[in-house]
TrEMBL record:
Keywords: Hydrolase, Membrane, Transmembrane, Transmembrane helix. The chain crosses the membrane at residues 6-27. It comes from Lysinibacillus louembei. Residues 58-260 form the Beta-lactamase class A catalytic domain. SUPFAM superfamilies: beta-lactamase/transpeptidase-like. InterPro entries: Beta-lactam/transpept-like, Beta-lactam_cat, Beta-lactam_class-A. The keyword Membrane applies. This is Serine hydrolase. The keyword Transmembrane helix applies. The lineage of its organism: Bacteria, Bacillati, Bacillota, Bacilli, Bacillales.
Amino acid sequence: MKIALWIIAGIVAILVFVVGIKGYMLYKEFKTSNPEYIMEFVKEHAANGDVAMSIQYNDENWVNVNENERLPLASTVKIILAITYAQQAAEGKINPKQLVSVADLNKFYLPKTDGGAHEAWLAQMPKEDMVPLEEVVKGMIAYSSNANTDYLMDVLGMENINNTLQQLELSKHDVIYPITSVLYIPSQLMQEQNLSSKELVEAMQAMDMEEYRNRAIAIYHQWQTAPLSKEEKEQLLKTLSMDIQKVWSDRLPASTTKDYVAIMEKLNNKSYFSEEVYQYLDPVMEQLMESPTNRELFKHAGQKGGSTAFVLTIAMYAMDQQQNRTELAFFANNLSVLEQAKLERNLNSFQLKFLTEEVFREKVKRELGGN
């Protein structure tokens, strides 16, 4: 769910061309994995409410930093769609083997707005015009295709997706709405009111959330029968200034790390849902278990992350070969380019070290558990 592709993709180049010793040290720091950076970041930013972390280890609350702070989820919200898919598949309401037209998926695809996710997913699929529904769902989770996500909102039903929030008892979770069609609202406003760039930002900031969501849904339904042309998509991209992207990012569905650790526990314990639901859910959420190395370490594990130019989030769960269970959620907002780059660089190594090293786990608990 990344819009500012040109910024994020340019991080390394920016660092390489920073001159002087300070620039070199920044580049070296960026290239070197440092799991403890995550702890440092959480401690530094906890007071301003822009970061939250919750970790549960063997049913014990290990870390709770701003666990009730609502922050934008970015693509981590797609976990809810995966759960809804698995429930409907288990109930026989949808057929995971049903073939889906790639053209129908592409109705919701906006180039340069997802970090290349949709194209990367299609590139590894057979070069065919139809793909199974289950692969569309897997592409939503593993590759984070926004086009697949919005397509699935129609298949699953937005009301059913939001009912899943109630079933999971997520009291602080925002309503879920289309994530791609909402990007057309700035273009729509400019056409309606002939606004300048500054006026457009002000109008977007002033729009209340009910109108914002209703416009997104109306555009979404319109695209199903009359999708944008290539030229219209190119014109849309011109309206997505960083100020507009910030409005979009801030208004993405939000929730808390407490809620998402609770979801991770339900995925990890293999007992909350029926066995049939897990049969459809695990192949989607646990695609990292296709790695032989991960299979050596874990009985099962799954995760979903998300990002915008300002946000980085992840929710994960794992059971290792010794039956130890971990659930973790980390949300950060209002990030600078360098902060996001360093978090992305170090988050995976933080997770792996926490999962495999007892001394590090205890250090995390000691340094963050009291927040």
